[in-house]
Structure formats: structure tokens, C-alpha cells
């Protein structure tokens, strides 16, 4: 019996250490690289407005972004109540976004239903209307509720009686859907920036003329880049205070310069 308890104790300690190591790895992987590898001359990370991808890293979508990662790191039961709740909320958000993208009207139809929009005959989805067009009667931005009412009105006009709200969403899901619809163009651009950075993080900045950035980026960023002259895109991204949009600009300008050099050689 004592031997069995001893074996159980060893296995318990082993799995506890393994779980702790997974959590520790997760935490350090998640920390911003510039806070680990670079000095910070100002507490800019205290302000959400200075975070790298502030539109993507929102408070209201923190559970959707991080719960699954936390479960995979062993911080919670992967099939527990909290993890399942986050997955269900994400599913409702995704389904609602898809529903709105499929609800498409012409600009004339939107106008007839009270949306202030140029009647050019184009077909636009409810997803692209929310937060980006105004209502004629109020002058306020079109909301999810406005689009739901328009959809219900059209369905009733077509003789349909079984009309339900979009997936019967709760307040938190509705809020997330409205935010994602409103900022969709910017979120898409930010996603492209992240993808571009990941693809070109190892790109060399050898021969790059950092002085050519004067007037194109913030003075703070310009001064730091001039002083440090990072050798790669990854190094530039780790300079404290340099925004993601500036890193994308470095990638584009360096690619253009390399293309010109190739043309000269040929």
C-alpha cells in the first residue's frame, strides 16, 4: 500500500511539474517580445491605445481569444463549463456574422427601408451596413437592431410568418457582432498586417534608407529607427513604440527596393 501511494505521489509531482512548465511556456510565449528583449523608455504598454493590434485585442472578445489557449495550456479543463461557454459564444458570433453577410439587398432597397445610402444599384450585405451607414429618420449609425427590423419587414412582406431574431442572441454576443461589423474593414487590414509581418519577419533591412521615412511616420518612431537601425523586420517590430502599420510600411518599401535592384541587375 505504501509503495502504491509512493508511486501515485511521484506521478502526481511529475504531472504537476509538467502542467506548471506548460503554463510557464504559455505565459512567456504570450508576453510581448519587446518587453522581454528590449528596454522600454516609457510605460506605453499601460495604455490600450498603444498596443500593437488594439482593434483585435479587445476586452469584449478576450474570452473568445484566450479561453481556448488557456485550456490547451492546462490552465482549465478543456471540456469544462468555462471552455465550452467560450466556444458556444464564438459559434454564435460566427454564425451571426455569416447570416448578416448572406442578407443582401440593393442600395435602392436599403434606401427604401430607411438607410441613408447612395442608390447606385450595388448589392450590399447587412454586415457591411451596420455601423457604416446612417438611418434616414434618426441620422444615427445603423445598428444590428435596425438591420433585424428591416429583414423582418421584408420577410413579412414576402409572406413568411416564422420570423425569429438572428440566432436569438444575448447582449454580449450582439455587442461583439456589432463591433466586428462596424470595424470589419480595419480588422481585415490589421489581419493582413499581422500576416505580412509573420511572413516577412526575417527580411533583411540591409541598405534600407531610414531617413526616407521622415514625415511618413511619427517622430517618435522615426527617431528610434534612425538611432537603432534594426537589421531585420523582426528587430524593427521589437523596437518599443513602433506601430504595426510602420512595420508593414518597412516591408513594402524594402520589397520595392529589392525589386528595383533585381531589375537593374537584369
Span from first to last CA?
80 Å
Given the structure, what is the number of helices?
A: 11
Proportion of beta-strand residues: under 5%
Give the proportion of residues in helices.
55-70%
Q: Please state the overall shape, judged from the principal axes of the Cα atoms.
A: extended
Order of helices and strands: HHHHEHEEEHHHHHH
The unreliable regions are 1-18
Number of domains: 3
pLDDT averaged over residues: 80
Order of strands across the main sheet: 1-3
Rg, rounded, reads: 25 Å
The secondary structure category is: mainly alpha
Give the helix/strand layout.
Layout: H1 2-30, H2 33-37, H3 62-72, H4 81-102, E1 104-106, H5 107-112, E2 115-116, E3 123-125, E4 134-135, H6 144-157, H7 171-182, H8 184-200, H9 219-228, H10 233-237, H11 244-265
Antiparallel strand pairs: 1-3, 2-4
Helix pairs in contact: 3-4, 4-7, 8-11
Plain-language structure description:
It is a single chain. The chain has 266 residues and is mainly alpha-helical. The protein starts with a helix and ends with a helix. The protein has three domains: 2-75, no CATH class; 98-182, no CATH class; 192-265, no CATH class. Helix 3 (62-72) packs across helix 4 (81-102), helix 4 (81-102) packs across helix 7 (171-182) and helix 8 crosses helix 11 (244-265). The protein is built from eleven helices and four strands. A two-stranded antiparallel ribbon has the order 1-3. It has a two-stranded antiparallel sheet with strand order 2-4. It is 58% helix and 4% strand. It has helices spanning 2-30, 33-37, 62-72, 81-102, 107-112, 144-157, 171-182, 184-200, 219-228, 233-237, 244-265, and strands at residues 104-106, 115-116, 123-125, 134-135. It is extended, with a radius of gyration of 25 Å.
